[in-house]
Amino acid sequence: ETILDNVIEVLGKDGVTIPSSFYETVEKIFGGLMGGSSDGASPEIGVNFAERGETKEGHAFVCTVSLDENDYDINMTSDDDFNLTSVQANLDFGSVQLDLDLTTDLKTVTLGSLSQFVPEDKDSYVSLVNMHGVFKKIAHLASAKAFDVSFDGALTYKYGKEGEKKDDALNVSAFASLDIGESDYRLSLEAKGAENNAEKIDLAYLPSTLENAQTAYLNYNDVYKVSASQTTIDALIGKVEDATNGGDSAFDAKKLLGLFSFLTDSEVMNAIAEGHYQSVLNMIDDLQTSNDKIVAGIELKGLGFGENAKIVATIDGHEKEGENALHLLKVEIKDIALKDTMFNGVLTLDDHTNVAFNAEGYNSLEKLPDIYDQVSDLANEKRAGLGLDANIRFDNDKSVSLRGSMQFDANASLGTGSFTIEEPLKKHLLTTDFDENQVHLQYQDADANNEKGTLAKLSIRSVQDLVSYISSLTKNERFQNRFMTPFGGVIGEVALSNTLSEVLDGRYSSLLGMNILKNYTFSDAQSVFTINAKALGLDKDLRFAVNYGSKTSLSESGEVISKVDSLELLETDFNGVKVGLKVTLKDYDASLTKRLSYAEEEYNDFSSVSDLTKALLNTITDFDTYHVKASCDVTLWTANIIHLDMDMLANYTNQGWEYYLKLSNIPLIPAVNSQYSIFYGYTRSVEVVVKDEKVYLLGVNPFGKHGYLTEEDRANNGEKIDWTETNAANFSFEYLQKNENLLKFMLGDLLNVQPYYLNQIKSSDSKVETSKGFSLSQKLAYEKVLESTSFDSETSDYSMTLNIGALLNSDYVVKATLGAKTNNDNYLTQVAIDAFAFAGVRVDFSLYLELMDVGQTMSESLKTSFDKVVSLGESGTTHSL
Length: 881
Hints:
Helix content: 10-25%
Number of strands: 43
Shape: elongated
Strand content: 35-45%
């Protein structure tokens, strides 16, 4: 039954179904003839053979088969010599009817008549007798049990943004030397980029000095050379199998198969799944044979590899002078296409070459199973203790250090930690407890333990939401352009290497030749990995160490092995700032689960900061243009002595950010920021544009027309003198990076401070020694800054009160309140800062910003002002180095 169904299915007769009753009848017939059916019952079968009489051609017979209560007649005829000439039957099995009509003509059926089936081009057929060269090579391969496989291929692909795609290529070479009889297996892989930058990996699996044992070797770019015994490998594989066979394996075969959906959903594979196996034969495009050679062409279009995808396999039995004696098989891979990728290559099967292996310089990985155990134990127990020791040193020999420890228990969702931060003038103490719902923090002066400092709490949910939100933003192209790309992004302002920039753009061949791992040293005490600085766009190489401590265990081979004690970033110089970091593995202390014991209402709730951050990121991600109106007031008691208006614009383009700022109502004080003592009550306006790494400025002192040029002019009603002052200039970023030039720009060009005062400031500034690092002359009480936070969920209003006077350890009262507001679309709409100082006289300061307009392009009026400042600034005074 199964065989017949499969035959019908292979033939593609989907509409034909053989009823089960037919099989039951056949089974009864054959079962009866053989002495019983499959169910053990013996059916009643009768066979009666009788001659019906003579016919014109000969004789007629009938064979009646009686099965249970049914009779089936089979009619037969013969010639006069009783040679069978026909068989006819009409058999009705209920749901199946079998009609049979067979005729024979023995007089014409001779062996010679078969010649009609011989093909006309029979001379083009090659006898397998002429394939002795192929068979000879196959026999050699089978007896030697050793061969080499070579592969050379090229992968071309497109990278970059849509509409700006560029071409790139990777050349891949592989060589495998396999000696099955001697258990000697070697593999060499090399990948080269378009600029011949390359990476190479050599693998070997060779017999060791121990009986029935192997040793594996890995060589990466002749820098990282390690070996592992079969005992070590078996132990590691066993540990991994034990971990993954428990049913909690991270490996998901369905996910892996999903990567090949283009193949599994292809035309051919779908046809095979439906039982149409002939679709595989349709893939054979060409088949050629000649003496000792077979060439087969197979189209891969039906497998989803592209319109022109093809494999050409050549089996060659010839022995050619100068070539490898075997060279039996060559497979050409042509135009395999997947999306923007094209692959071509050639694989050859050659005779084995025996080359001695040099095992010098390889470091043993006997510690690997034990390290795996440490990681596995941590993953299984889900609780651990960690020590943290970080140090930052500046080029003025000042430093900041962070030392402390923490521990966590993921099973109970609990954790606690304590860290001391020490800078030249002060020690800070940060203590934290966390559970599945909240994080509690205490920040205080380490030398003033009686003071509570700042107490804060943050919900775990708010942190998770913020992390999830930022994670989703990283997939947003607009966010990537602003924050993650080298051109215009905030993160991109960090000097990324050209290599990393190209990799981020999708040019993966740039990874080749980076030689990320520059050096590797190994000892019983530590393993040190040196990471190539150039590959990461840094000035100095990074050195990471795995330190082994006093705790030991026995390896699988019985050796005493030190356990991993700590992981360390050895001190590295980042542009004059030296950074070192060490994380030490510690035992979990079950008796220490909590350090803080303050009442819940004593903590300031910072959970709303997560929502405010999301609103800020949402606002600066979704729009290209931001127009902000702002005002600033300085009040002495009840008198408003200064009122400034600000009009600000930020605009994002493909070239990066550009900015426009207009300050109005800057008081002009005679002899201070005005050269004329006769004008009082006038105000200055300044417009600034930042674009293409230049700053353009246009300042106006609108004194207007006053007085007359001479007595004669006055008598004759002559023109009044226009005293209006205008200064236009442009500044390069490089020029403004110098402190003296930046100060002159802010005070002189922006506020119009007169040369006398400006020279005094410059003279004073020139006496100050500057260097990177800390140069504070007093302790700052950071732990006293934050007084309160609040959030109104109904109005989406945020508020935070800061004690600036406490920060400065001043007796003066200086406080500031920061407020923010969002709308229903989760965009930031308002920011306000109110501050006051009291030192015998009360001075109030307020800054109010409102997001007036957001969109994709700036308004015409702002664009006119923007272009005017650039034009006049460009034609004004130029300041550059």
